[in-house]
Amino acid sequence: MPRFFSDEIESGRVFLRGEDARHIQKSLRMQVGDPLTVCDLRGIDLTCRIEEISPDLVTAAILERRPSETEPTVRVRLYQALPKGDKLDLIVQKAVELGACEIIPVLTSRCISRPDGKSMEKKIQRLSRIALEAAKQCGRGIVPKVGALHSWEAALSEMGEAPLAILFYEEATASLREMLQGAPGEVSILIGAEGGFSREEVEEAKAKGLLAASLGKRILRCETAPLAALSVLMYETGNL
After folding, report:
1. For 8-31, how does the pLDDT look when each residue is reduced to its tens digit (9 = 90+)?
2. What are the two backbone dihedrals, phi and then psi, of residue 35, each rounded to the nearest 5 degrees?
3. What is the distance between the alpha carbons of residues 71 and 43, in angstroms, rounded to a whole number?
4. What is the bridge-based pairing of β-strands 9-10 and 13-17?
5. Contact 191, 81 (CB under 8 A)
6. Which positions ≥6 away from 3 have C-beta within 8 Å?
7. Burial of residue 86, with CB atoms counted within 10 A of its CB: 0-12 exposed, 13-18 middle, 19 or more buried
8. DSSP code of residue 237
9. Which residue intervals of the chain are DSSP H helices?
């Protein structure tokens, strides 16, 4: 069944506009009476039936509400050091598929990419569209947010408030499995860019309460590491 997102809900009806409406009518060629699923952006799936349809607006009656079965039981925030080129596009897309609730780019000492404010704003807009399309494709109950670019200090400050915060570092020896004992409800993870983290950054992170974990004996690329970490985390918490 086609799946869309909308928080425009009123009097037992949901409204879809713009590109979604055009896609429903022109690409999917749906008609009045056809069923579709709409997610309310809060993890609730709405089973609906189309009542009115046009290229600009689709109105659908809500038949049933139920919690989305696709959302993980653990909320994972991915803090990703800014990589070169378009690698972050892939990371965002796959992180959404794997269950991350938010992706936050971070500027670290070894980041080669250092866009100005205007360029970063455009990048965030593109990444947010990628997150939306990925959420539709994989059946998420929310659209994971792509946050603004964080400084190293801001990222550590936020992560220090999390119930469980983990930095992945090639010289760490502790396993992620050990850290996930007790089924945490919320986890923040931090992944480096092409050059990883400096020793000073690792020590600063530990001082803020972050744990350093290993992803094995092989050094993973910066676009591989977050996907490996998310996969292991989801598996160990029963979400994969």
Report:
1. 999 999 999 999 999 999 999 999
2. -85, 155
3. 7
4. antiparallel
5. yes
6. 36, 37, 38, 39, 136, 139
7. exposed
8. T
9. 18-22, 87-98, 117-138, 152-159, 176-179, 199-207, 225-236
Residue 208, Cβ density class (10 Å: 0-12 exposed, 13-18 middle, ≥19 buried): middle
Tell me the pLDDT tens digit for each residue of 195-234: 899 999 999 999 999 999 999 889 999 999 999 999 999 9
- What is the Cα–Cα distance from 157 to 162, expressed in whole angstroms? 9
Write out the two tokens for 55: 């290229």
Instruction: Please state, as a whole number, how many other Cβ atoms lie within 10 Å of the Cβ of residue 32.
Output: 12
Nearest Cα neighbor of 226 from 184, 190, 181 is 190
Give the whole-angstrom CA distance, residue 169 versus residue 166: 9
Nearest CA among 56, 47, 62, 52 for reference residue 14: 62
Sequence-distant (≥ 6) Cβ neighbours of residue 29 within 8 angstroms: none
Q: Tokens at residue 211, please?
A: 């744990």
With contact defined as beta carbons under 8 Å apart, do 99 and 212 qualify? no
Q: Quick one: angle between helices 87-98 and 225-236, nearest 10?
A: 10
Nearest to 237 by CA among 201, 175, 184, 158: 184
The model's pTM is 0.90
